[in-house]
């Protein structure tokens, strides 16, 4: 359940207390305890040919929707289509995908050499100096290529100043959302993308197995998060987040700012992920430091069953929302909820995942998008009991023509949370 604001709120809130509670066989440390070996050695970067095919697909979708061009700012969509890794600032850098032909990159004059370093597809450059208007530069290029009179799409995260500026520069153009074009490409992962996500998931599970036996009574979330992130780096992943919630804090999906430490008999909820070549993992585990109570065991088992129900409901052609509906129907029968009421499931069952930890579409009530091969989702129908504890298990899956397949296998029991 990675959330954009979570790391700012809690940093590496961590915490697990479990070494004292689980059987030695479940917590066996790697043979080379401090000599972890990278699992990312076989990671294959996305090829130039695949990026070109992505642009070609976007152009087909643009033609079908009557768009003449699509504007994209730095971020995951720019990486997806062009390979360009760049940060947003008050100085506009953007790509324009025309309905035909090579892309345009607009960037400040002094940034061009740096922006070119990661460009992975053929493209035209237009640069601007500090006293000039970069949006006017985009408009002039569109006019020169006879693209200024039709519909111009905006990638859904483009900032308002760029949208407003283009409206003023091209009063006769129709500025529209380009989300359906971008989503139509990015929602369906290729075998190369799924392979990178699999490596990221493998790294996260291996890092969990390394971290668990090193958790000790009195550790803070920061202590545990540091172990997890160090292991992730050693295994070849780039740590993306390490959320650790202890005791009552586990009852709140993104935790609490109150001081926390590992204590006997309390739930430890870890939500961690990494990236490999930009593609993400997102895996959560909940367990108890010491001996679990009957209530903790019962809630854990119900939540684990919720994962299975979601997985079984994820059939090709079924609506994404129906997966969430299936889990809530099960929980309601057992007295959790109804709907988002607590104790129960206070958030969606899952989110899309890929280059972003959260990306369209979601497994949430009312989402009508049909599930199709290549789509990737988290499966995390947590149960939260305010003032007491929460249980969240999260494993991601991808859709195939035959149905869903796990990136990481859900755990067998509260006593063996890493399989």
TrEMBL record:
Superkingdom to which the source organism belongs: Bacteria
Segments forming domain Creatinase N-terminal: 54-187
GO MF annotations in UniProt: aminopeptidase activity
Keyword Hydrolase: yes
Residue intervals of the Peptidase M24 domain: 196-400
Name of one Pfam family that matches: Creatinase_N
UniProt entry tagged with the keyword Lyase: no
Protein name: Aminopeptidase P family protein
Signal peptide: 1-28
Assigned keywords, A-Z: Aminopeptidase, Hydrolase, Protease, Signal
Membrane-crossing residue ranges in chain numbering: none
Record PROSITE patterns: TAT
